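Lecture 7 notes: from sequence to structure.
We start with the chain below.
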Amino acid sequence: MSPLDVARALRSVSERIDRCHPGEGETRVSIAGAWVTVNAASDSPIVSYNRNRVQYFGCTQRVTPHDLDAALAPFEHARIPRCSVWLSPCQQADAIHSWLAERGFAPFTGIPPWPAPDYHTLVYAPPGGLSRGVGSIRIPETSLVVRSPSRADVEQHAEALADIYAAFGGDDVFSPSLGCEGFNHFLAFEGERPVAAGILIVQDGIGYLGYGATAEPYRRRGGQSALIAARLRRAAELGCDGAVSETLSLLSSSLGNLRRQGFEVLYDKKIYLRRA
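Predicted C-alpha cells for the same chain:
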C-alpha cells in the first residue's frame, strides 16, 4: 500500500465516519476533493480537538491556489480565525506548503513548553494480504473477552461506554455508527462489563482500526491488543488486503500495541495552523 493510496482511502473513511456521526452545529463538505469541517463552537488551540480543519487537500486531484482559497472560504464566512490544514501525502506537497505560508499558515509546533507530537499513520500489510497473514496475528494473553456487541448490549452498557471513552471528551463515538455500512464494532468484557472498545471500518479493501479506548482502571490488561487482533481477523474475513490505523507519537501505549501486532509507520501527517 503506497502512502498516496492509503491517504485516498482514509479520505473516504473520514467522510464515512462523519456521515455516521452527525456533529451538532457542524458543517462537513467536500471542496476541491478535500474534506472540510467547520464548527464555530470549536476553538481549542490543540489541533486534535479543534474541529475547524481541512483534510486530504491535494490527495484525490490536482489542485490550485484558487482551490485552497475555496477550501478555506467557509472559515472566512463563519469568521473563524483559528483553523488547520492536515496535509497527507500528495504529489503537490511542496507547492501547497508555499500556498499555505502565503495565507498565514505555519507548521504546528505544539503548545509551549510541549512540542507537537508526530501524527502517525500506520499500516499492517503482510505478504499475500491479510487472508494469508491471519496465522501471524499475535493473540495476546488477557482475561478480557472480546466480542461484537448487539445494540441491546450497547444500550445496556451506556455508562460503561462513557467510562471507556472519557478521554474523548464524553462524546458518544461508539453507538452512532452501529448498523452503518462498513462499520464493525467490538467490546472487550471483564465479566459482564465492557471495559475497552474499538471499531473496524472497511473501505476500498482496507480495514481501518479506529476509536480504540480503555476505561482507566482496566488499562495494561491486554484489552487493546486483543481488540486489534479481533479487528484484524474480521478485516481478513471481509477480504481486506491490509489494515491502517492512526495514533500520536506521544501515545506510547497505543503505538506499542500496534507495533507489536506488526503495524509500521507509513507516514506522518503535516499539520499547518492559522492562529487566532
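Points to note: The two ends are 38 Å apart (CA to CA). DSSP finds eight helices and 14 strands in the chain.
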